[in-house]
Write the structure tokens for this entry.
Amino acid sequence: MKTIAIIDDDIPIGNMLEEVLHKENYCVLRAYSGTEALYLLSQQTPDLILLDLMLPGLSGEEVLTRISNIPVIIMSAKIDMDNKVNLLLGGAVDYLTKPFDIRELLARITVQLRIHTSQGLVPVLSAGDICLDQTARAVSVKGIPVRLTKTEYAILKLLLLHSGQVIAKSVILDRISEDTPDCTESSLKIHISHLRKKLREVSGKDYIEAVWGIGFQFIST
């Protein structure tokens, strides 16, 4: 089930969107300010973000600059064309002017999730000296094959897909649960420790960083 984050301080609009998205079988996360949005994204990784621009605290424009590897659809009453162009060039994948037709929004969400999913299925993921071949389910470091367990492979793949982004432990467990249903919160640290050791033995580098109280992130340099 895909997860969509609604970042909007307009409670009635947010409630309406949440109800519609639930009916379409999406999980929904909510944030009501720019600061709250950044905290939310440090804890969980949604599949798509609906972002309003006029937020208390950090503006939507500021929040956008701090989001990577997640498609963002801007929802705003601002209709200035230069503003739209700048936001699209600045990382947003789409822009809807309020008020909008909910059917159009759902269609645009479907399109962006389809695009993002297909991009996530590129045959080979690489960062730094690490190469992960999804077709062969093989991992190499500096061209040297590294044998990983099924759980270690699933964790590395997820971290590579979101390189540089902190992923909460609960999100990691949720995303790898289909491939590794036996992995638990207590065993996750052990699997990551073994994965870090195997990568470090070949490269001499530590690619996976623990962020205390939150989760882990992949660092390519």
